[in-house]
Each structure stands twice: as structure tokens, then as C-alpha cells.
Amino acid sequence: MNTHSPDLTKQPPRSPRVRLGGYVILPRMLDKCRALLAGKNGEYHYACPLDQRFLDFTGIDPEALKQQVAAGHGDGELLQWITRHAPHKRTEPEVASWSAFAEQRVPSDAESRAYFNDQVSKGAPNREDIGTWFEWLDVDDYASFGGRV
């Protein structure tokens, strides 16, 4: 296995905004998978609902991807594997559009809005500028490792 597994008990995974092959979420998901395999995932979960959005868009099975990560492949090799094995073949414009939408996604129903508002009010009570899931994840990651919000 690749010896470069982030220790997510000491640092957050990459921001969901970081892209690989144009895909948001993917680098973060790979960090979480590597950390899980190394037993260093802390509070982070591989194939969580956010990751599932990427997995659904591409059609990639999370267990199959985990096997590739466990084999020690780097980000570029994993992107090539995803491109070859994704049941849903996407064009560059489709990936760009999906990623732009994901980056601006807000809670879309009453239940997710209530959860989101609760998390923000607990984690960043003085912040009124957090409206998207990605904004919240970036702030939460920062605060989780000692940052003052």
C-alpha cells in the first residue's frame, strides 16, 4: 500500500473544492479512503453522502475504488482507472458543469436545511456567510484542527 496516507486525526483531508480530472470531491474522497485503510481516518468517513454524489455521477463502486487505493495507486493512476471503469462516461463539459453545481450546492430540503443550520450554529455561531456545503466543510475542517472561526 502507498505509504503516503494522510493522518486525518492530525489534519483535514483536502478541501472538497480541490479538483482531480475536473472532479470536485474526488481528492478529498481519496484522502479519506487512504486514511481509512491506514487506520487514520479519525472522524472522516469514506463513501459518505458527499462522496456518494461523485460515486453516483461516475457510477464507480466505492469498494472497487477502495481496492485500487489499497493497491497503492497515486491520484493520477486512480483518475485513469476511474476514467476507464466508470459506467457513466462523462465529457469534460459535463464534469465541469457537475463540479460547478456541486461547489455551489446548498441544502435543498427542510431536513438537510435543519441539519446544516444546526451544524453551522454550533460550529460557527457568528458566521452568517456560510451557505453552501463546501463552505461549511472548509470552515468545519479548519475549526476541527484548532482554527478560530
Please characterize this protein's 3D structure.
By secondary structure, the chain is mainly alpha-helical. The chain has two domains: 104 residues, no CATH class; 44 residues, no CATH class. The protein contains seven helices and no strands. The longest helix is centred in the C-terminal third of the chain and has 14 residues. It is globular and about 45 Å long.
Q: What features would you highlight for this structure?
A:
149 residues; globular; 7 helices
The radius of gyration over CA amounts to: 16 Å
Question: What are the segments in which pLDDT stays under 50 over at least 5 consecutive residues?
Answer: none
Number of strands: 0
Shape from CA axes?
A: globular
Q: Biggest sheet: strands, sense, closure? A: none
- Cα separation of the termini: 36 Å
Give the overall average pLDDT: 96
Number of domains: 2
Percentage of residues in strands: under 5%
- Give the helices and strands as they follow along the chain: HHHHHHH
Q: Structural class, from helix and strand content? A: mainly alpha
Q: Please, how many helices?
A: 7
Helix content: 55-70%
